[in-house]
Every structure is written in structure tokens, then in C-alpha cells.
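Thread: Modeling a multi-component assembly for a lab meeting

Hi all, long-time lurker, first post. My supervisor asked me to bring a structural picture of a complex we are working on to next week's group meeting, and I have zero experience with this. I have the sequence lines for every component (402 residues in total). Could someone generate the structure of the whole assembly? Inputs are pasted exactly as I received them:
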Amino acid sequence: MKYNHILIRYAELALKGKNRKEFEKKLQDNLKFALYSFPESKVQRTFGRMFIELNGEEENRVSERLKDVFGIHSFSPSLKIDLNQDDINEAALWAVRDALPNESGTFKVTAKRPNKAYPIRSQQLNYDIGSHILRNTSGLTVDVHNPDVEVKVEVRQEAAYIMCKTIKGAGGLPIRTAGKVLLMLSGGIDSPVAGYFALKRGVELEAIHFHSPPFTNERAKQKVIDLSRVLTKFGGSMKLHIIPFTDAQQAIHQKVPDKYEMTIMRRFMLRIAEAAAKKNGAIGIVNGESLGQVASQTLDSMYTINEVTNMPIIRPLVTMDKLDVIKVAKDIGTYDLSILPYEDCCTIFLPPQTKTKPNREKANLYEKELNIELYVQDAIERMETIKITPNSEVDKEFEDLF
Ligand code: ATP
Ligand code: MG
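Re: Modeling a multi-component assembly
Sure thing. I ran the full set together rather than chain by chain. Output:
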């Protein structure tokens, strides 16, 4: 015997009416996409439930994949069995043995019978199935209060479902239900993690990266492409916009006093990000800033830099400690890429001293020396857009889906 289905549970309480329908539809699409490398699997939606029909695909591998799909509260591998009591008993026995392979420990059976036409009531089902398990195993006992394994049996119209395991899902909301945002993606540790957290709240993500050739090289660009590809594991295919930033940076370097260079450069980046967001239908910007982490991320800096846009800026890491961010980076698989030592555009030209308390008046004053509009326009005109897919071969096949 083998698990032939996976039951998906989502946090439906948070959802009502029309939203819920859209949420479910999106989750179904997202699941189809996430399972593209399991071509036999099918995602089914019936009566407020979602199932993966495995059709021979490996349950363990599919379960691993499901852990990265946002909007899933938990899931359970399950056996779909015809409505025949002997078969149900056998399936329950198999499932309990699968969960407790040494046949030692405790279990209980919890049967539900939404299909009232089925002749055996749930109490009796608990008893019959439990007895069958006890008769056919050596070291198992029943514990109704705190069992090692709960054998859940659901007798429905079309079949019975038997499950023993509940696996925690990624939580959050299905991607592409919350609107589109633009992630400012550097090659560092923080911004990919920020992108991950934004995806977790259901956004559709695109990324923007500033580079300054010839001061930053192709490998730095490739690193950002690779980081984006890791994010597609959670967010599906995405666009990455690469902005040539050398001219603006050089102008800032020449015209702005040392201590304000970083602040003005950030203001430029934000203006360009806003323009790129608008051009691509995004209505928010995500970055990897964390309060007080470095000079450009003090509250004063944020206040002064933030002046140039009134788009929402989402800072998922704003209150996080670096060590916690690093832990997430390792978990999601971006850390090893992030620590590759290629130059980021932000670090070139920059003087050693940056003001930790820049103010808006001075920032505006120094910017008078620069033709801001021109640089923003030019950056957008020369923006290069790359489509990043989890695996370039499936690019075409899934283009329609997203
Ligand atoms: P990260 O690890 O994400 O680079 P950081 O702690 O090094 O963050 P900064 O370099 O000060 O911090 O950058 C702060 C944020 O600004 C980044 O998290 C990112 O969102 C954005 N950013 C910095 N450099 C770039 C870049 N070259 N292209 C796009 N966004 C950038
Ligand atoms: Mg950085």
C-alpha cells in the first residue's frame, strides 16, 4: 500500500465570501505550478477541501515541495479507499504501521462520517478499526488522550480517507493574492529574505537590482539572477529588472558632500524603484532594511530617504536581528549565494564616513546640483528585464499560468 493523496488544509477562517473563492483558486494554480516536476500529480478542489492526487508520484518528495507553498496551514498524506469496511480496516492498519514502524507506542482512531448513508456510525467505526489494528500488531496500545499517532478516518460520499500524519505548512497567504510589489534586491543577505517574507504575505514579486558597470562585474549580476531563482521556489517565475546606475552614482560622487553621498544615492535608488514599479504595475516597494543595522538604516536615514516617495515601503526585516535573518537565509537557501564576495554598487565610491542623522533640508539642498529627472528617466529607459523561472525549460509551458 502507498499514500495516494495529500489533503491540504488552509487557514480558511480568515476568509469570507468572494475572497475565499479567489484564494482557493489561486492556491490551486500555485499548487499546480509548484508541482510541475511531478507531472502525474493532480490538484483537486471539492467542497472546501483541496487534495493532491498523487497518481504514483512519491508522497515524501511531494510533501517536501508542499512545505514551500504559502497559504497552506498543514497537510496530511492520505489513503483514498473505496467504501468497504474491510478495505478501510486494512488501510488504517497500514497507515499506523507506516507511522510507527517498530509497532511500539500508542494510537487512537478518530472517525467522522459525513456520509450518513454509510451503515456504520462513527463510534462503532472507532471501535472496529481500533480492534483490527490491535489484533494485527504486537506492541501497540490505545491512548485516547495523548496518543503517539491519531488515525483519522473520514467516510465521505465518494470514498473514505485515512490519515495518520499532519505536516506543518508554510503558513501565510497564497502568492499573487495581495497585489504586486517590487523588491530592491542587492546581492546581500537581507534583501532576499525580505523578498521571501513579502511573498509569504501573498504578494506577486518582481525585483530590481542596481549595478554599476564596469565597477561591478558580470558575476555580481549573475549572483542576483541566482538569488532570484531561489526566490522562484516560493514565488514562481518573476521578472528581474537590472538598472545601470553608474552615471547617477558618479554624478552624486562629484557633486554631493561626502557625508550625504549615501543618503542621496539611496534617494535616487528609491525614485528609480518607484518609477520602475509604476511602469510594471507594482504598488509597493520591498527592501531589506533593518532598523539601526548600518548608518543608512537609522530612523533618521529612513525618514530622509523615504521623503522621495509616497509608495508603501515594506520592510519585513525592520525589527529583526541580523542573526535571525541569517537563520532564515540559511533555511530558504539564499545564504550561501549571498556571502559570495562580489562588489555591490552601494559600496563603490562611498567615503568611509556616512552621516547617521541626515536631514531632509540638506538632502534637498544638495540634490539641487543634480538633474534628478534626467537620471531617473535614463535609468528606466536603459533598464534590462530578465524573466527568471525555476528552471528555464519550463518557462514556456507555464507562461500562461502567471
Ligand atoms: P542587503 O543584505 O540586502 O544588501 P544590507 O544590510 O547590506 O542589505 P544595504 O546595503 O544598506 O543593507 O541596503 C539596504 C537595502 O537597500 C537592501 O536590503 C536592498 O533592499 C536595497 N539595496 C541595496 N543595494 C542594492 C542594489 N544594488 N540593488 C537593489 N537594491 C539594493
Ligand atoms: Mg547590501
